[in-house]
Amino acid sequence: MHDLHKFDNIVKELQKKYIAIEQDTDDHLYGLLYSKPITYWDYIQTDALLSLQIQRTTLPDEMVFIAYHQINELIFKMILWEISQVAEKEELNVEYFESKIMRISRYFDMLTTSFNIMREGMEVEQYMKFRYTLTPASGFQSAQYRLIEFASTELINLIDYRFRKDINRDTPFTHAFEHLYWQAAGKDHKTGKKSTLLINFEKRYKEDFLRFMETYNTKNLWTRFKELPKADQKDDDLVKAMRHYDYTVNVTWVMAHYNAAVHYIESGIGDGEATGGSDWKKYMHPKYQKRIFFPDLWTEDELENWGQNI
Description:
0% strand; mainly alpha
């Protein structure tokens, strides 16, 4: 039998906790008498999670496609969770910054290597059939990935390179939004008319994006890095971590995605077009848009040849 006095300190700490929020400690202790013990499946919400994979066809490999992309979105959520901690950290130091960057990088490292699951885990013939039921949807429409970009770097680094000279920190967010690099993938390059892919995306997320862009304008990873003392900005381990993250997201991961797309879209089956109708090669390949989060951490030669040697 437990000695009750051993719990005196715990009870005292509980009292402090509830007094601080003007709550009755007795009520909360009584609540413990009637609460059910937690189980793994309740805590993880396993049943709810496993009910979300709804196929649109009878083709078995569509399940791989759905589950894989849902896993990606969960990882994106974890990445945003880590970035938000850096963004909100009041006393930011090198050790904390580096540890968070490496956590984020490991998530993207995992995403990069995981493309083989999708590439080798679906029969080309099956994919090229069920993909037609996805039109005009596209992985382009991952809102969380766009949030990761906004939270990682200053907005100018996400602007289509053709328009960067005309945009600065005083440019209205609504104007900058129309010139983000990925806008080109959803517009007719001659008329500027937006595709259904882009129209649907903006209808659902544009207002959220604009609010997020403004929020992270002054606390994205690149801005927070430049707030560090000059000596800390030259810390070898931190710079190495920043470069690793930048290259992994904007070259390695993108190319893994690109090569998986090539495997299926250019298989000789189908019309060779992306489901959303975008010019997917120029949109995805890093050598065209040169998406770079932390440009000052790279040499002129590295910037010039970004995404070329892969």
